[in-house]
């Protein structure tokens, strides 16, 4: 799946598994593509879901930084670091990725007009959660 489409799929399929008043909470990552604000991208995922949603954005990483972290987490063979890095960067550039965000999405199944609130968590709070 491309970029953050697995997270999008989970958000879009979750309501079918929720009773009225039921909750789904998910820690995830999503891409910021082009000039589209991150709030709009997530709101698109939630549109028509039948759920209220609260999105709390934590850490933002630029593609260069994100690629370095993923490489460190997935391989111990440093001989391929540059090759892997170049592959990540080609992928991100070709898809217009400007940043990668992580955060929490909370959804509550509710009849009626639904709402979506997005908030950027202050850095000191995000750091506290990671401890």
List keywords for this structure.
single chain; 131 residues; alpha+beta; 4-stranded mixed beta sheet; 5 helices; 40% helix; elongated
Tell me what you see in this structure.
This protein has a 4-stranded mixed sheet. It is built from 5 helices and 4 strands. The chain is elongated. The longest helix is centred in the C-terminal third of the chain and has 14 residues, at 81-94. The protein has 131 residues and is an alpha+beta fold. The mean pLDDT is 91.
Ordered list of secondary-structure elements with their pairings:
Elements: H1 5-13, E1 23-33, H2 38-46, E2 51-61, H3 63-74, H4 81-94, E3 97-109, E4 116-120, H5 123-130
Parallel strand pairs: 2-4
Antiparallel strand pairs: 1-3, 2-3
Helix pairs in contact: 3-4
Query: What is the radius of gyration computed over CA atoms, rounded to a whole number of angstroms?
Result: 16 Å
Assign an overall shape: elongated
Cα-to-Cα separation, first versus last residue: 31 Å
Unreliable runs, pLDDT <50, ≥5 residues?
none
Strand elements, count:
4
| Strand order in space, largest sheet | 1-3-2-4
């Amino acid at each position: 799946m491309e970029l953050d489409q697995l997270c999008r799929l989970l958000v879009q399929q979750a309501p079918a598994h929720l009773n009225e008043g039921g909750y789904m909470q998910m820690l995830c990552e999503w891409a910021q593509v082009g000039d589209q604000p991150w709030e709009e991208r997530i709101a698109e995922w939630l549109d028509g879901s039948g759920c209220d949603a609260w999105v709390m954005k934590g850490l933002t990483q630029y593609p260069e930084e994100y690629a370095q972290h993923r490489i460190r987490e997935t391989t111990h063979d440093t001989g391929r670091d540059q090759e892997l890095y170049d592959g990540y960067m080609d992928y991100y550039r070709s898809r217009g990725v400007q940043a990668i965000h992580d955060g929490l999405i909370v959804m509550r199944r509710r009849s009626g007009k639904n709402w979506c609130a997005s908030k950027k968590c202050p850095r000191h709070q995000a750091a506290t959660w990671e401890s």
